[in-house]
């Protein structure tokens, strides 16, 4: 094929359903992240038990319905987008996927700045890292993509079971008791540091420790294989043409919807009741069962949500309802970073200092309020502009040329 100039995907090439799914994922990710922004997700079990019953119920529902599902949906969409961009690169004769690699490199830069200067819970740098690994799979067959996705989902179960066995064999019971006893003290120290700290003290101390702990956690929890597995499923979906031609894949979508919700229901009840998150520490036997539930229940539930929205999208009535999410999805990077700015302003000491004062109910309602504002702002912005502000910057860095921002000149 001739070597043509690389350009961003045009509006006519966009699949609106994917923007809807991306917008829904942005909402779900914030509900999950709000546990850590507000601090209630870090609360020790001894203090959790003292929370009002409504907060305990809401926290259970967040784990059951939200935890892991929406970053999984976003990962799936990333894999789909990867396949689309690789196809465009091949059409241009770019066998090395140069533009996509540059796109990943700049995403990594944005992610590192986000993690170090604002909030350690960044996911962008993880996506960039795993995106480079995803490139190794671009020549694999469809069957191979599915086999690799399945194998990667099993990895966290094996590693967590080994971790539990190592603790049983080598860690004295009194050490675990001391760890539990120190949790409340560490929680109180964190609350004081975040509520009362200025920007520099929080970024250079609390955030730095949080960042180190997060990356250790990513490896302990085996989050990276989970992300890559969903990338591969999204890649497979593009190859099969599922979103390019819904009508030809109605049977497959229906099966994913039914079996995904069935397996997801069982797996997520186990995860929420026995583990509470994807890999609790210190490990325990019930948590091993919960991690198994997470490994299979979370991706199944995420795929079922995708299948449900895809099915509803076939109705004009539901299209009108769901389409309000599309502007948020088209500006997903901007909205993700906007959420961080709003939340650190609300909860950190250089803002309102509300860290540690919200239970699960108040935090989740706050999330819905923020997201409602994002729907309005995104819709208004895209009436006048072709891209979200961060999308515009990212595209210019990727394509190494100035792009028109206003709609009439784009």
What is the number of domains? 1
Estimated structural class = mainly alpha
Classify the helix fraction into a percent range: over 70%
Largest sheet: number of strands, sense, barrel closure:
none
Report the order of strands and helices. HHHHHHHHHHHHHHHHH
Specify the number of helices: 17
Question: Tell me, what's the shape?
Answer: globular
SSE map:
Layout: H1 16-38, H2 45-48, H3 53-66, H4 69-92, H5 98-117, H6 124-134, H7 142-170, H8 173-196, H9 199-220, H10 223-240, H11 250-274, H12 285-312, H13 316-322, H14 326-330, H15 332-347, H16 360-384, H17 389-399
Helix pairs in contact: 1-4, 1-15, 1-16, 3-11, 3-16, 4-10, 4-12, 5-6, 5-17, 6-10, 7-10, 7-12, 11-12
Task: Describe the model.
The chain has 17 helices and no strands. It is mostly helical. The protein has one domain (11-259, 323-403). The longest helix is centred in the middle third of the chain and has 29 residues, at 142-170. The mean pLDDT is 89.
How do you describe this structure in short?
By secondary structure, the protein is mostly helical.
Structural features:
410 residues; mainly alpha; 17 helices; globular
């Amino acid at each position: 094929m001739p070597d043509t100039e690389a350009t961003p995907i045009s509006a006519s090439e966009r699949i609106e359903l994917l923007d809807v799914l991306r917008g829904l994922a942005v909402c779900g990710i914030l509900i999950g992240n709000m546990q850590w922004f507000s601090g209630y997700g870090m609360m020790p079990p001894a203090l959790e038990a003292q929370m009002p019953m409504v907060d305990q119920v809401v926290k259970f529902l967040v784990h059951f319905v939200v935890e892991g599902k929406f970053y999984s949906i976003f990962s799936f969409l990333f894999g789909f987008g990867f396949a689309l961009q690789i196809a465009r690169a091949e059409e241009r004769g770019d066998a090395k996927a140069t533009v996509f690699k540059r796109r990943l490199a700049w995403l990594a830069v944005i992610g590192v700045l986000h993690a170090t200067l604002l909030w350690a819970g960044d996911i962008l740098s993880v996506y960039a890292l795993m995106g480079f690994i995803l490139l190794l799979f671009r020549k694999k067959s469809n069957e191979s993509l599915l086999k690799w996705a399945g194998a990667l989902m099993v990895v966290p179960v094996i590693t967590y079971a080994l971790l539990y066995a190592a603790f049983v064999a080598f860690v004295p019971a009194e050490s675990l008791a001391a760890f539990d006893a120190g949790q409340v003290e560490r929680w109180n120290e964190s609350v004081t540091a975040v509520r009362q700290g200025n920007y520099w003290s929080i970024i250079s101390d609390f955030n730095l420790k949080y960042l180190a702990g997060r990356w250790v956690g990513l490896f302990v929890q085996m989050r990276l294989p989970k992300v890559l597995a969903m990338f591969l499923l999204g890649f497979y979906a593009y190859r099969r043409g599922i979103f390019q031609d819904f009508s030809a894949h109605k049977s497959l979508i229906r099966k994913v919807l039914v079996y995904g919700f069935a397996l997801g229901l069982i797996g997520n009840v186990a995860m929420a009741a026995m583990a509470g998150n994807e890999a609790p520490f210190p490990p325990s036997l019930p948590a091993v069962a919960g991690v198994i539930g997470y490994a299979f229940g979370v991706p199944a539930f995420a795929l079922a949500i995708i299948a449900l929205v895809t099915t509803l999208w076939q109705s004009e009535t539901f299209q009108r309802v769901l389409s309000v999410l599309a502007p948020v999805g088209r500006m997903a990077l901007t909205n993700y970073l906007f959420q961080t700015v709003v939340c650190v302003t609300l909860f950190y000491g250089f803002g309102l200092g509300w860290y540690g004062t919200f239970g699960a109910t108040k935090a989740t309602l706050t999330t819905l309020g923020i997201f409602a504002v994002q729907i309005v702002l995104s819709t208004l912005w895209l009436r006048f502009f072709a891209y979200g502000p961060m999308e515009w910057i990212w595209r210019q860095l990727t394509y190494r040329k100035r792009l028109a921002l206003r709609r009439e000149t784009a």
